[in-house]
Amino acid sequence: MKLIRTVVFAPLAFIRLVLLLLLTSYIVITGALWYKLFGFSRKLQRWMQGNWGKAAMFICGITLNKYQLPKSSNFILMPNHRSYIDIFIVTALTPSAMVGKTEIGKWPFVGMAVKASNSILVDRNNTSSLLQTMAKIKNSVSQGIPVTLFPEGTTFKGPLTKHFKNGSFKIAADTKIPVIPMAIEFKDKNDAWVEDDTFVGHFFRQLGKPVTRANVDFGEPISSDNYQVLQEQVKEKIDLMLEALQDF
Question: What's the rounded Cα separation, in Å, for the pair 53 and 59?
Fold first, then answer.
């Protein structure tokens, strides 16, 4: 059945993939030129991420039921992580300094996009890199630019969340920056991109269907100078929101 659906919707998936690549090329190249001429600005970040995320969702047929983001200018957003689709959703709703692994800096266009969008790459195995990341996060939030971290560190199908990495909570606790929990759930559980599945294979199977339905919820900001307490409270809140979103 999956194979039949993949074959039937392959033309739509192919068109969407080409359009997504063209969109990404346009946004990154334009953003890189903007950055080179005028330097980084919040306006540039909002333009790049907001337009890219919203357009990517439109191209890929992603519909979203969402709850209101709490009013706050200084925070770290921590969503659970199901798929690369999460990136479309987060950038569309909350343009921010995205924190990711150094490895993604080697991907096409990513190097240019990182600078122009003020994103932060971290080597989790390097203490010096973690300290630099902490300073960059604190500096970003102090300028009114929120930061997004995926505390699971990788994608997970669910139904709830897997173990959270300690590092992101140590950063939040040490910098005393409030954390806003975010829950992302898909109507079709196979939209999760996990394990050794390839991007292209998953894209053609899942984003070839006409519509992809997602639901999003936000919790109130949580603060603590104890990273273990913060980690426990954020995980509990995200899991509770995911439970509520399971049967939408």
Answer: 10
